[in-house]
From TrEMBL:
Recorded family membership: Belongs to the phosphohexose mutase family.
Top-level lineage group: Bacteria
Family matches, as Gene3D superfamilies: Alpha-D-Glucose-1,6-Bisphosphate, subunit A, domain 3, Alpha-D-phosphohexomutase, C-terminal domain
Domain Alpha-D-phosphohexomutase alpha/beta/alpha: 8-134, 154-253, 263-367
Gene Ontology MF terms in the entry: intramolecular phosphotransferase activity; metal ion binding
Domain Alpha-D-phosphohexomutase C-terminal: 372-446
GO biological process: carbohydrate metabolic process
Annotated protein name in UniProt: Phosphomannomutase/phosphoglucomutase
UniProt keyword terms in alphabetical order: Isomerase, Magnesium, Metal-binding, Phosphoprotein
Length: 451
């Protein structure tokens, strides 16, 4: 019995093609997924990104699904949120072949139930892993069929139906697709809009020849920032490899934090549904719950990670959710994350007034932040405990452990210290009233973590 725990992660399946993932294994995953969802659905929708290995692996997965008597709808090249759209619109469980922003040699499978409901370790992935490890039982009945269906135009029309850009002034927008799936989706989504599109790296190329398709790393925003300044654009958008995350830079090329985007979109969604609930993870800026509350909404704090956000959205009926990592979740999009829809909200907000984006976002950005700082440590638990001990009992300090260690120092700021699930790292995020306060608090915590 092979051990697949190295590639079956918390939220997806991911590994190096040829070494950890091959067509035979992926076919087994397809068959195991079919067994999991067979009681609820006769069909599975499958999409894939632009990596060289993706079409072959998607076909192998489809073979596994059909071997268990289920049918497959193949949507071919797609972004992850386009696959979620198909799962929601068609009412089918789905499988997306992508390794997001990982290097070219990787690939993976993101799975969902009908209506884009997530499949993670606790909601089916562990069961799929066990089935494959123990050997998939053969099905004696008739094999299912595969049909192809293009949903790109429907996906684009659905997104545009959720954000009204009809009154927008013309905007010049640079989009860096990073040779990822935004090069496939953006032209169709933007085509009827009052947008002068300046494309960067729209050629689909899973070897990522220009830069990693990971906009969370500032080094990968440099080309976008330069192009925005060069052409005098109103803003720039950067998507990751599977185009489910979107990062924004303003007219000066300065990054707009995902917390600021979360607050801006939350205000727009609350205008449509006054008193609604907005989810934010515990690393987003304190400005997010403040602004949600000021606009009559209810802010609910969660752990980091899409399964927690989606579960809390379902539980509370939330209209929107945002994370510090630029994942944005919408009730109107089956509670799934779509950076494209968040981008349309930013474009609409900018286009309906005359000022620049830097001015528009100023009211949503209230504090200074450190960004995520990683420290390699020998003992994550001991280092975290040392930090807790150092701050516990201080006047005006509150501590909670919803997700890692969050220490709130009132007006001095707050910080969160979380252990990585996959590496011997502690991740620190600090927020305070200004840069000097951020530096002081960061230095204080790192002295203990790295001491």
């Amino acid at each position: 019995m092979s051990d697949l725990s190295g590639i079956v992660k918390a939220y997806d399946i991911r590994g190096v093609v040829g070494e950890q993932l091959n067509a035979g294994l992926v076919a087994d995953f397809g068959a195991a997924f079919a067994l999991l969802i067979k009681p609820d659905s006769p069909s599975v929708v499958i999409g894939h990104d632009m990596r060289d290995s993706s079409p072959g692996l998607a076909a192998a997965f489809a073979e596994g699904v059909t071997s268990q008597g289920l049918d497959v709808v193949s949507i071919g090249l797609a972004s992850t949120d386009e696959l979620y759209f198909a799962s929601g619109k068609l009412g089918m469980p789905g499988a997306m072949f992508t390794a997001s922003h990982n290097p070219a040699q990787y690939n993976g499978i993101k799975l969902c139930r009908a209506g884009a409901a997530p499949v993670g370790q606790d909601s089916g992935l562990a069961e799929i892993r066990d089935t494959v490890e123990q050997g998939v039982p053969e099905f004696a009945g008739q094999a299912g069929s595969v049909v192809e269906r293009d949903v790109l135009a429907d996906y684009a029309a659905h997104l545009r139906s959720l954000v009204d850009l009809s009154g927008s002034r013309p905007l010049k927008v640079v989009v860096d697709a990073g040779n990822g799936m935004a090069g496939h989706t953006v032209p169709t989504v933007f085509e009827p809009l009052p947008i002068d599109l300046v494309p960067l790296y729209f050629e689909l190329d899973g070897s990522f020849p220009n830069h990693e398709a990971n906009p969370l790393d500032p080094a990968n925003l440099v080309d976008l920032q330069a192009k925005v300044r060069e052409v005098g654009a109103d803003l720039g958008l950067a998507f990751d490899g599977d185009a489910d995350r979107c990062f924004v830079v303003d007219e000066n090329g300065d990054p707009v934090s995902p917390s600021t985007v979360t607050a801006l979109v939350a205000v727009r969604e609350l205008a449509k549904e006054p008193g609604g609930t907005v989810i934010h993870n515990l690393i987003t800026s304190k400005a997010v719950p403040e602004i949600v509350t000021e606009h009559g909404g209810s802010a609910v704090r969660t752990r980091v990670g899409h399964s927690f956000i989606k579960a809390k959205m379902a539980e509370t009926g939330a209209i929107f959710g945002g994370e510090h990592s630029a994942h944005y979740y919408f009730r109107d999009f089956w509670r799934a994350d779509t950076g494209m829809l968040a981008a349309l909200h930013v474009l609409a907000a900018l286009g309906e007034q005359d000022g620049p984006l830097s001015e528009l976002t100023r009211e949503y950005s209230r504090y200074a932040a450190s960004g995520e700082i990683n420290s390699t440590v020998d003992d994550q638990v001991a280092r975290q405990a040392a930090v807790k001990e150092a701050f516990q009992g201080r006047s005006g300090v509150s501590i909670d452990e919803l997700d890692g260690l969050t220490v709130d120092l009132g007006e001095r700021g707050w910080f969160n210290l979380r252990a990585s699930n996959t590496e011997p790292l502690l991740r620190l995020n600090v927020e305070a009233p200004d840069d000097a306060a951020v530096k002081a608090l960061t230095d204080e915590v790192l002295a203990i973590v790295r001491g």
